[in-house]
Write a structure and sequence with these properties.
12 helices; alpha/beta; globular; 406 residues
Amino acid sequence: MPITKSNTNSIKKTDLLSLTLPQMQQWLVERGEPSFRAKQLFSWLYQRLVTDFSAMTNLPQSLRSQLAQEASIGPMIVRSEQHSKDDRTRKILLELDDGKLIESVLMLYPPIGESSVRATVCVSTQAGCAFGCTFCATGQMGFDRHLTAGEIVAQVLFFARELRDAPWSAKGDREGRPYYTQNESKRAEYSRGDPRGRPYSSAPIDHITNIVLMGMGEPLHNYDNVLQALRILNNLDGFNLGARHMTVSTVGLVPAIRKLSQEPLQVNLAISLHAPTDELRSQTMPINKKYPLEELLAACKDYIAATGRQVTFEYVLLAGVNDTAAHAHLLGELLVPLKQFAHVNCIPVNATSADYKSPSGESIRAFRNILFEHGVSNSVRAERGDDIAAACGQLRTRFEKNRNQQ
């Protein structure tokens, strides 16, 4: 059973956020409580988002006292919180129970076209990372340890509480770029603002709509804890986040991809690809030497056959390294066999200590157009939070550097 750090002089406290509903039922029955208390406790944790056992008023006082003595709710300390200038990206640096530091990011998206407003949490799954990708700040710091399921869940709940307490509204765009609709007449009306000339805002959003496991660490390296966390967040009696609103990213751990394809939880899969050839990919992603592209693509084909779901291929664009027309043609040829089940997410690189540079807008458009010529769907991820070091690992690196200088 998952427990937090303890010592011989104290009672071992169970982190309740690491328990599925059946595990929580068992935990309570072992303490002489009826199993139905677990659903009540789940509701307090994941629907009402409380962090204080004394607030759980439909639980007996004796149980609340016992919970305070024997259990905890995702113990961690916020060491830093930063908001981007437009308030669409918020980043926290968390200190875990053993002093390890991790990062988590909330990304807020206004409604564009016919899509609705979104609140996405980018979640860390490890403290550090063992896979050493050269363009990733986390990969450059080495591996500390896996996160528990509760430490993964707690990141989502932190931002869920923040949005509940202060719902976010997307402000209107006075430049004619619509948030609500692609209809021209509605777009013109919206861009004019309200009768007093003020830009319209979207309806407030007060809950998390999506999570992406793309923060610090390799999710499939921490497979069991990651799947446990996703099941907890998916539970209908708790947080009730749909599996199709969860995305698991991986550098390409082939056996784990095949294992994931057999899970009943219908989460989305994203592959960190970043190069169209083994030679180039091995230079920036050491894992490619163990699982080269042929094996990785075979696993993706098996995943698609088993699930019928599209795979997203993350492609960090590094100016002068992997962003030329030749690279785009090679990437298109590599993914064409997957047909409509492959989508490329082009990501301009964030600056890290590796000193890579992002391509120009013109280069990115040319790269994407070549993919379209090959029939490969693609999009470009907007740069977010550059003013708050939003790329995974950057805030921790900055914090530790400042702390060491003190």
